[in-house]
Write a structure and sequence with these properties.
Blueprint lengths: L30 H5 L9 H10 L8 H6 L2 E2 L9 E3 L9 E4 L2 E4 L9 E3 L6 E9 L4 E8 L12 E5 L38 E8 L2 E6 L2 E7 L3 H8 L16 E4 L6 E10 L3
Length: 272
């Protein structure tokens, strides 16, 4: 199995944008004056690169994120830091396309995509866009001890709330986009329509977990609390005793059979 040290992806900035230096044209200027001007971008390459990253270029870390210990999980070009569930290589349906990680339903080689590394306490940020009527999800702290990652790891739901039947299934909306799937409904009215990008964040610190969507905290819970136990007993996960109890595991992108797109996948380990 080919693995890749996460530190190799820590520093990744946006492509350099050349800066065009335009001088005032005066009558009678010689060709030698023109040839003596600096080449486009020659004196400003570092500034342009840093500025593009700080402006939020896709699949790049800003200087501040690098200093804070963020790790880039997808650079727009390859899946070196990902593999399939219970396999060494990524399923062929997961493809980098135009700097976006896309799930393409065509073909026989499908399945969930998961990180090669495991994470315990972390802050995970990512953007997602779902197809019309589509369904997917991000599962975290999952293990490979069962037939599917959702048997062990909680899921932040990805859904077209306007068209997919799951939006009206479950209890009080606990299968809508942003939810702790089948357990806790998200704050309503935060998700953007299918086809638009959503900015998501999962913070897992010990037993305390938060889901954030488009800048708003939409779910918060404490594993092992009385509330958690009650929600677990009322959910579909009761037949899986290992569900939600792991303090460390994989980040998993779900193959639910529908087109879905991801970008800006980055993670910051918390604590020591």
């Amino acid at each position: 199995m080919r693995t890749r040290n996460l530190s190799l992806k820590k520093v990744h900035t946006a492509p350099v944008v050349g800066l065009v230096l335009t001088g005032l044209l005066v009558a009678g200027c010689s060709s030698a004056d023109s040839e003596g001007a600096p080449a486009e971008g020659a004196a400003t390459e570092g500034t342009a690169t840093q500025g593009a990253a700080q402006a939020g270029a896709p699949n790049a870390l800003t200087a501040q994120e690098q200093a804070e210990g963020w790790v880039l999980l997808f650079d727009g070009d390859d899946l070196d830091q990902w593999r399939g569930y219970r396999r060494d290589t990524p399923p062929a349906r997961w493809q980098p396309q135009d700097s976006v990680l896309a799930f393409v339903p065509e073909g026989d080689d499908g399945g969930d995509l998961m990180t090669r590394e495991q994470f315990g306490d972390f802050e995970f940020r990512y953007d997602w866009r779902i197809s019309e009527g589509g369904n997917s999800g991000v599962i975290y702290r999952a293990t490979e001890d069962s037939d599917a990652p959702w048997h062990t790891g909680p899921e932040m739901q990805i859904l077209d709330d306007e068209r997919h039947p799951d939006a009206n299934a479950g209890v009080n909306g606990n299968r809508r986009a942003g939810s702790l799937y089948d357990m806790i409904a998200p704050t309503p009215g935060v998700v953007r329509p299918a086809g638009q990008w959503n900015e998501a964040r999962i913070v897992a610190n010990g037993n305390h977990v938060e889901h954030w969507l488009n800048g708003q905290k939409v779910v918060e819970y404490e594993i092992g609390s009385e509330r958690w136990d009650s929600l677990y007993q009322a959910s579909k996960f009761t037949e899986y005793p290992g569900f939600g109890v792991q303090q460390r595991g994989y980040i998993v992108l779900q193959d639910h059979g529908d087109p879905v797109w991801f970008r800006n996948l980055k993670i910051r380990p918390l604590g020591s």
